[in-house]
Amino acid sequence: MRGPTTTANTQALGTGGPAALSALAQDPAGSAAQGVLRLREYGPAVEVTLTPTQRDLLLASPARLQLEPVRGSTSRWNVSATNLVGVLRAADLVVEIRPKLPVANLLYLLGFACRLPPLDLPEAPTSDSIDLQEALAWLYTQALSSALGRGLPKGYVAVDEDELSVRGRIRFTDQVNQRPGLWLPIAVRRDEFTEDMPVNRLLKAALRRLLHLPFRNPKTPLLLRHWLRVFASVADLPPTRRGQYEAPPLNRLEGHLAPALDLALLILRGGSLSPEVGRESAPGLLLDLADLFERFVRESLRHEFGLSCANFPAAGAGRLHLDRARRIALRPDLLWIDGPNLRLVADVKYKRSADGKGHRSDLYQALAYAVRAGLDRAYLIHATPHEPVHHELDHDAEFARQIVTVGLDLSVPLPELRGSMTRLANVMKEAVQPL
């Protein structure tokens, strides 16, 4: 079964390309309309009337919303957002949290972080010209179109059944425990070559998660249901504990599915951040921009350096420890491993630093990384645009003589953002210590 990958199919549904995205103009963030609360990432608080159920759901939400009561009122609240963006439904109230950076840039970060092939992303001057839910649905369908060009993958899946004849391998333990003294039916296990495999179930579950979001463009749910029909032969994912979604291992023939699977897991894990208060729940989809920024920087630099995941792993791969007994693990966000040697260490922070010097705790953390890695410098990369700041350390130690803080402006046009990552990689390459 082949997936709907042609341009004609997607354009027929009206949301297949950048032109459709650009047409999704929205109201300004930082306002409260009837049944909709629009907030901006790290933006000013919005005063809104909340019922006790809405208030409790928002307070329990992992969206990290800040609620402060309005003086003299028991139902009016000032609500502001932090670094989680997306959409959340609290009873009959829809909360939309929009990023500071343009949504086109957010899509670029998502695409790079999930290792998607280059996409024709629209240039968006502000974050209000594209709705986040619509844009994420578009990005996911583009990822599916790229991954399923040859149709749904098939694989062997172990199936346990009770048969009147032996087909496959007999499950002797189950047969004896479930039917002692009986010959029929026979508990057997066989391998079935099918499309109903774990990776396809995860891809389908992400489509269903997106369909739970509120969309203003009626054609977006049609596009998602169109793709859902492609997975008609795939069973739904069984109920999973909140956030407990794991990527199944992919073989050599399934490697092309990895980018779409990464994005599907991001959607499912973001959709699992839904609190429950009593019988009420708050479904939605939230993206952690701190985690996304870290993944984007790591994948971008890995690409610029030309390194593999083994040489440039996530979270330091447990190579560094603070103590000699190796009980306290250090996990830098970026670590260049060259056999037994370490060439570069850096940490990535999304939180703002107004002066560009970095927060003290972050500098102490980078210093520990440099000392334990045996390097003369460490880098601290954060999402505050400024010129690099070199902190020369006043000591005679052999290692950790300098901490360099570097800021990236994520709101610039995409060509400038790509250029800034290339310049950062070149600066870091020049400072890599020779073996």
Report the strand count: 20
Assembly state here?
single chain
- Average the pLDDT over all residues and give the rounded result: 79
Q: Please report the distance between the alpha carbons of the first and last residues.
A: 52 Å
Uncertain stretches:
1-29, 122-127
Give the percentage of residues in beta strands: 15-25%
Based on secondary structure, the structural category is alpha+beta
Radius of gyration: 25 Å
Strand order in the largest sheet: 1-2-7-6-13
Main sheet: strands, sense, barrel: 5 strands, mixed
| SS field, number of helical segments | 12
What's the helical proportion of residues? 25-40%
| CA-based shape | globular
Care to describe what's here?
This protein has 435 residues and is an alpha+beta fold. Helices cover 33% and strands 22% of the residues. A five-stranded mixed beta sheet has the order 1-2-7-6-13. The termini are far apart.
Offer a few descriptive terms:
435 residues; five-stranded mixed sheet; disordered N terminus; 22% strand; alpha+beta; single chain; globular
Q: Nutshell version of this structure?
A:
The chain is of the alpha+beta class and 435 residues long. It has twelve helices and 20 strands. The N and C termini lie far apart (52 Å).
Furnish the topology, listing elements before pairings.
Layout: H1 7-12, H2 18-22, E1 31-33, E2 36-40, E3 46-49, H3 52-60, E4 66-69, E5 76-80, E6 84-90, E7 93-98, H4 103-113, H5 132-147, E8 155-163, E9 169-170, H6 172-178, E10 186-194, H7 198-211, H8 219-230, H9 258-271, E11 276-277, E12 280-281, E13 284-288, H10 289-305, E14 320-321, E15 329-330, E16 334-338, E17 341-349, H11 360-373, E18 377-382, E19 389-392, E20 402-407, H12 414-431
Parallel strand pairs: 2-7, 17-18, 18-20
Antiparallel strand pairs: 1-2, 3-5, 4-5, 6-7, 6-13, 8-10, 9-10, 11-12, 14-15, 16-17, 19-20
Helix pairs in contact: 4-5, 4-10, 5-8, 5-9, 7-8, 7-9, 10-12
